[in-house]
Amino acid sequence: MEKEYVMNVAKTAREQLFGMTPTMVIMSWGVSGMYATVFKDMPALMLKVNGRLFKGFVVIALNGSDYYEVYLNNEKETRLISDEVCFDELGELIDRHIERGDNKKEYDEFCSSQLMKLVTG
């Protein structure tokens, strides 16, 4: 696979993810690195994350059907979380798996407790 193609796909995925996802949401993921790579023979963007629910790498790979496949990868496993993701669904899907979870009330309580810790020291 040509390096330039891989770089362009990763750049496009990054622009779509950052363009469609609120900055505060992305900041909550603890992103500490972004890499263009080839994953399972697909061009991909890989993010190193330190979320509340998942720590490791999120891989956003462009498949042959023009959809993204999103994987979570750490020292324990590589897990496919979806194989038909449109660009405008990336942020919500990733956030649900690495930071927010499915329980809105529990996440809101967590955020409130974190805010109190910051305010009160």
Describe this structure in words.
- It contains 4 helices and 5 strands, in the order ααβββββαα.
- By secondary structure, the chain is α+β, with helices and mostly antiparallel strands.
- The protein has one domain (3-120).
- The chain has a 5-stranded antiparallel sheet with strand order 1-2-3-4-5, with helices on one face.
Q: What distinguishing features does this structure have?
A:
121 residues; 43% helix; 4 helices; elongated; single chain
Give the structure's gist in a few sentences.
This protein is of the alpha+beta class. It contains four helices and five strands; from the N terminus they run ααβββββαα. It has one domain (3-120).
Count structural domains: 1
Strand-residue proportion: 25-35%
> Which outline best applies?
elongated
Distance between the termini: 51 Å
Helix amount: 40-55%
How many strands? 5
Q: Helix and strand string, N-terminal first? A: HHEEEEEHH
Name the assembly state.
Answer: single chain
How would you classify the helix and strand content by structural class? alpha+beta
> What can be said about the biggest beta sheet?
5 strands, antiparallel
Q: Spatial order of the strands in the main sheet?
A: 1-2-3-4-5
The averaged pLDDT comes out at 95
The low-confidence runs, each spanning 5 or more residues with pLDDT under 50, are none
Please work out how many helical segments DSSP would assign: 4
The radius of gyration over CA amounts to 15 Å
